[in-house]
Design a protein that fits this description.
Blueprint: H1 5-19, E1 39-42, H2 49-65, E2 72-73, H3 81-91, E3 99-102, H4 111-119, E4 123-127, E5 139-142, H5 146-160, E6 167-172, H6 178-193, E7 201-207, H7 212-225, E8 229-234, H8 237-249, E9 257-260, H9 264-272, E10 279-281, H10 284-299, E11 310-317, E12 320-324, E13 326-327, E14 338-341, E15 346-348, H11 353-357
Parallel strand pairs: 1-2, 1-3, 3-4, 4-5, 5-14, 6-7, 6-8, 8-9
Antiparallel strand pairs: 10-15, 11-12, 13-14
Helix pairs in contact: 2-10, 3-4, 5-6, 7-8
Length: 358
Amino acid sequence: MRRTMLAVATAGALAVSALSGPAMAQDPVQAEPGQDVNMLLLPKFLGIIVFDQANQGAMEAAAELGNPTELTFTGPTADNSVAGQIEIVTNAPTQGFDAVMLSNNAGDQIAPVAAAAQEAGTKVVTWDSPIPSAEGESVFVAQVDFNDMGKTMADMALSLTGGDGGEVGILSASPDAANQNAWIAAYEEAIASDPQYEGIVNVETVYGNDKSEDSYAAAIALADKYPDLEVIMAPTTVGIAAAAKAMQDEGLCEDIAVSGLGLPSEMVDFTMNGCAPEFALWSFVDLGYLTYYVSYLLATGALEGVAGETFEIGREVNGQTVFEITEDPTRPDVEGALRVLMGPFTVYTPENVEAAAG
């Protein structure tokens, strides 16, 4: 942010005030509206509805905070996601961005350029999908607790195999998607560690690259390869919709159920006709809103970005307006990994999906 010395001093005073004494004993940090912060919202790639929803939430926060600089929402194409994200983060400091809000699709490949951006004065806040090593990341705004999400995926798989277990195939987005990998790892850990899931057999993880056509083909390939397959678990909104359509088109919905993470508006028909009886998701509008607030507070110096800091946002997100920066319990072996947890998520079934779909 290209601020005056007075603005810098004011922000520094706010940060010192926020950190004096035990963090939890202090009043939550509040944003000073109207500060000029050049901010970039960077999804994995463009053309995905949930990322458009996150942009909607971020724009809501920007208007609420009265930031005079318009939010930039840009990203690579699906075919160039990894290299495109790396290029955008690399160029962010020279293009004058004070904060980059990144849904990471490049794994740790993006860490060096994120660290370089931070060194140049550009805050890097991840959302939706973190940098696994946390290198170059100020804080990760997590939509849900990844361990909880893994257990929910295991619960849905168990339910859809009739409670006795069966063969489950996983349809993921891409091999480098940190959030996908973390959810799948947590799901596999839940199955391995709890006897109630011992009947579930994970046959294979395949990738649809968050493209409808690729995901559709991958789902059919799973069904063809494993004749006893009972569930396709797709923790990606693109993948779950494509897999459900594939099973519907192939007339396999009575044999293979689809589950994972999906948008109610896209999944309602598949849920009501039995192709995808259960799935889960959270509000991406709220996620974008919360991420913008965190990034604005960090870029203005109101938040230092250390564990224990609390801050207040302008409206309720999942029933609360005060959030805390904590060490990330889902990355316990990563030194310096920090998290703001939004949570929780909703499991959708025929009983509630129509109301959610609007």
